[in-house]
Fold:
Amino acid sequence: MTMKEARFYRTRDDGRVECHLCPDRCIIAEGKRGACRVRKNVGGRLIAENYGKVSAAHVDPIEKKPLYHYYPGRPILSLGTAGCNLHCLFCQNWEISQSSVEELSLQDLPPGAAVQAALRIEGNIGIAYTYNEPLIWYEYVEETARLAAREGLKNVLVTNGYILPEPLEELLPLIDAFSVDLKGFRDEFYRKYTRSSLQPVLDTLRTVRRAGKHLEITNLVVTGLNDDEESFREMITWIAEELGRETILHISRYFPAWKMKNDPTPLETLRRFFTLAREKLDHVFLGNVPPSEGGQDTLCPSCGHVVIQRSGYATHITGLDRSGRCTNCGHRVLKHI
Ligand code: SF4
Structure:
């Protein structure tokens, strides 16, 4: 495959390039890469080295993204590549996210071939860009999503939300649903443990909400790092006030990974946070916990009736009609079913 020129950059007089894709705004010398490890200065041009390169391609249940209120129970072709603009010390996918293209064995999958593969999968709703950070796969996601949309497929982005406003605005019309990580609610936490910052993520969440896209948020609670109740409460209040109480929140259990050795999140912490979040948000779920913990089912926010039952990745729609209304009280619970 020929070298793909990246979008959103400027070449300086001295031959270094400034990348304007994410708030890192890397200034990259000739022959070097940006902090995401996949955008390289080659002769004063910024090259997207991961364009068309796939590290993982699986058919997953949409619940695995996690998206619980977007075509529940349906499969989606899920694609990942190499690299990430964040460097979370607790990254669960660090083998691919903290690698360059050269360090992995990657499969070539041009946009047209990805869409054809998606169309061949029975019951598939579309393509999810996931596993590592898809925003630093921008050119591939944009082209693939455009082709996929033409074929009636949905495009789903599973992202850290760390992007500058201009590229986000351009991508927005092509993406139908967002699963965004909100990793904490302290800028200090973001800086120290993810090597990024909080405000751009909040800006992305607001933009996605304003655009009317389907949005679900995941908060990974890491023992001893972002598990203080005060900042959790502030986060929930911000979500409820800025994005609306209908915003879906997944509270996810952390397990030791990559450089982080702290103990797994105590179940007791997750239970407490679940109860706190439910006071202000209609739909809160627990992730990475045994089914016996609960926190998996969707309840009608109007009458409390169980409308979707989940056990692991098995999903049963038990109390919704075909338009997503509660069969008990008629309240519209889901828009996409
Ligand atoms: S996308 Fe990569 S190269 Fe560009 S600013 Fe962000 S980390 Fe740096």
